[in-house]
C-alpha cells in the first residue's frame, strides 16, 4: 500500500519539478531578456556602449534556465514536501502527509485503515488533473514578443556581421584604413580618409554584396584621391606601373623610378630615351592595360609623345601631400590587387594560377595599375600570360592547387590577357583552360571597373548577365 | 478499541446521520446548529446556543434528547435561582423506624441532557454551580460526590438581545463549553416549511434512534489519529488569538485581551475528528480543524476595551487567523 502512495508521490514530484522549473524558467528568461532589453535601451542613449555578443545573450537565457532546473530538482527533494503540496493542490485532505507521518507503531486501531484508504485514494487520483504543466503568467508572456523580436534582430545582425563575405570585405577596408592611418601620421588631411573608411567598414554588414561595395568604395576613394593628386594631365600610378613593366626589360632604372614614384628622375630618364623604344613600350603598356591615353601616346610616337610623357611625369610630381596621396593610391591598388590575388588564389588556384609573383619578388607592376587585373595582371614580367596555364604547359591531370612554382617568363612573349580571351573560342582544351584562368584573374578587375563606372541601374542587370554569359564552363 | 474500526466508523456515520434526520424533522433551517449539537454530543462536550427567542433552541435540545432516547431536564435560569435548585440538596427524611437522616435529593442537573435555558439570567453564583458538573461530571454536596449520568451534556441557551438583568457568563464557565453555536433566523422557505410542519393536524415527532454502542462510538472518535503537522494547525490557530504570542494575527494583537485556552485546541481536535469520520476518513485533516475553528474558539477569546468599543468580534479575529 505504501508502495502505491510512494509511487504516486514520485510521479507528483516530477510534475511539481517541471512546474517549478517552468515558473522559475519563465522568470529567469524574462529577467535575462529584460536585462538585454535594458542594455539596448541604454545603448540608444549612449552609443559608446557595446552590444552584447550573441553567446552572452544566449548565456543570459540558458544559464538561468539551468539554474532553474537545478533549483526545481532541489526544491522537491523531500517526499513530505511533495505530499504537502499534493494535499494542498489536489484537495486530498492531508491524506498523503498523514500516511507519511503516521507512526507505524501508533496505538490507534485506525492506522491500518488509514493506509488502506489512502492507497485506494492514491490509485484513483489523476495527478494530471491537479498538477497541470502550465506556463505561468501566459498573458504576461506577450511582453516577451518585443523582447524576442529584439533578440531575433540581434541574431540577424550578428549573422550578417559574421558572414564570410563581410569579414573579407572588412579585411580589405581595414587594410586600406591602416594604410591611410599610417599616412595620416605624416600627412595632414588623411584623417578624413580614415574616417570615411571606418564608416565604409561599419556599413558593410548592412550590404547585400559587401565585397563589391568595399571595392566600389575603394575605387571611389581612389578616383577622388587621383583627381586631387595630379589632375588629368598627370600620369596615373596604374599607367606608370604598366609603363614600368613595359620598360623593365631594357630600362630597368627607369622602370624602377616609375615604380617607386620618383617621377622627376623618371621624367629625365624618359627624356633621354630613344623615342622609338619609348613608343614601343607605350604601345605594349597600352595593349596590356588597354589604356586609351597610353595608346594615343604610342600612336603619336616620336618626340612629341616623349615630350608629353615627360610633362605628364613632371605633373605627377609635386608636394609632399601629393606624394603621400600617390603612395597611398599605390598601396590602395596593392590592397585591391592583393585581395583579388587572394581571390585568384582561391578561385583560380585550382588552375595553378596564383597572384603571387613567381619568384616571390615584388608584386608585378600592372597589378598596381588602375585597370590591371589583380593577382598579377597582363604585362607583368612574371605573368604576362606565360604561366603554366596560359602557356598551355599545365598538366590537366595535375592537382593544380599544389602548383606553386612558376616559370619566370620574359617580356613580350606568350599570349596577353586579351589574346587569351580572343583565343578562347577555339576547341583547344588548353585554350579553354587558359581562358578559364584568364577569366578568373580578370573578373575582380572587371568588377572593380564596373564599380568605378557609373552604370545606370537599369543596365546593371545586363552587365551582370554579360559577365555571366562569358563565364567559362567548368 | 477492539473490533473492526472501519465497521465502527460506518456505524458512527449511520448513527450520526439517523440522529440528524430525526432532529431535522422538528427543526427546519437549523442544520448548522443540529450538526454542532450532535458533534458536541459525540465529543462529550457542552454547547452554548445563542440566538433570539423563538428560533427553536429549546426544541433543538428536546429533539436531541428524544432522538437519542436519553433523559432530559430543563432548567429555566432566573435571577433568583439558587445553586441548590440546580444541583439538589440534602433533605431530612424519616425512615420507618422514625430515625431521621439526610438524603440527597438530586437536582435537575442529574440528567443526560440538561437544557440550561437563558443561562445568563442567573447570578454568577448559580451559574458556577454548573461548573463542577460540566467539567468534573459530578456534583459535590456536603462533601459527597454525586456522579452525573453518562452521557452528560449541558446545552445552554442565551439571548443576545435582551442584555438588561443578565449576568454575562464568567470566562471560566464559557471555557467549559465545547462549542458556541449561533442559532440563525430561518429563511422564508424554511419558515414556510416550519408552518407546514407545525400548524397542521399532525406535527412530526422525533423517533428515538437505537444507540446501543454510543460509548464505543465516542471511543472511536477519540481514536482517530492526527499527525503532528495537523495538530500544529490547531495550535497555530489557538496561538494566533493571543495578543502577545509569536504568530498572532494583527487583530488579536490590537483588540484581544486573552486568547483561546488549551481547551480550545482540545475542542478543535475533537470536533475535527468527528468531521473526519463523517467525511469517510480515518484521519484528521487541516480542513477539519479549520471547519470548526469559529464555533470552538469564538467564546474563548476575550476582547479588550478597545475591541469592544470598536465593535470587533472574536469571529473577525478567527477569520484572520484562518487566513494564515
Question: Which helices and strands appear, and what pairs or packs with what?
Answer:
The complex is a heterodimer of chains A (474) and B (324).
Chain A: H1 2-45, H2 54-75, H3 79-89, H4 95-101, H5 111-124, H6 127-130, H7 144-161, H8 164-186, H9 190-203, H10 210-229, H11 237-247, H12 252-260, H13 263-272, H14 275-289, H15 292-300, H16 302-316, H17 320-348, H18 417-423, H19 429-452, H20 457-469
Helix pairs in contact in A: 1-2, 1-3, 1-5, 1-7, 3-4, 4-5, 8-9, 8-10, 8-17, 9-10, 10-17, 10-19, 11-12, 11-14, 12-13, 13-16, 14-15, 14-16, 15-16, 17-19, 18-19
Chain B: H1 5-26, H2 31-43, E1 46-50, H3 57-68, E2 72-76, H4 83-87, E3 88-94, E4 100-106, E5 113-117, H5 124-127, H6 129-136, E6 138-141, E7 144-147, E8 153-158, H7 171-176, E9 177-182, H8 188-198, H9 214-223, H10 228-240, H11 250-255, E10 256-258, H12 262-278, H13 286-291, H14 293-297, E11 302-303, H15 305-310, H16 314-322
Parallel strand pairs in B: 1-8, 1-9, 2-5, 5-8
Antiparallel strand pairs in B: 3-4, 6-7, 10-11
Helix pairs in contact in B: 1-2, 1-3, 2-12, 10-12
Supply the number of helical segments of chain B: 16
- Cα Rg of chain B: 21 Å
Low-pLDDT runs of 5+ residues of chain A are 339-406
Overall SS class of chain A? mainly alpha
**Main pleated sheet of chain A:** none
Tally of individual helices of chain A: 20
Widest sheet: strand ordering of chain B = 2-5-8-1-9
Mean pLDDT of chain A: 72
- Portion of residues in beta strands of chain A equals under 5%
Distance between the termini of chain A: 78 Å
Question: Main β-sheet of chain B, in a few words?
Answer: 5 strands, parallel
Q: Provide the domain count of chain B.
A: 2
Q: Tell me the quaternary state.
A: heterodimer
How does the overall form of chain A come out from the CA principal axes?
rod-shaped
Shape of chain B: globular
Order of helices and strands of chain B: HHEHEHEEEHHEEEHEHHHHEHHHEHH
**Number of strand segments of chain A:** 0
Percentage of residues assigned to helices of chain A: 55-70%
Number of strands of chain B: 11
Strand fraction band of chain B? Answer: 15-25%
Distance between the termini of chain B: 36 Å
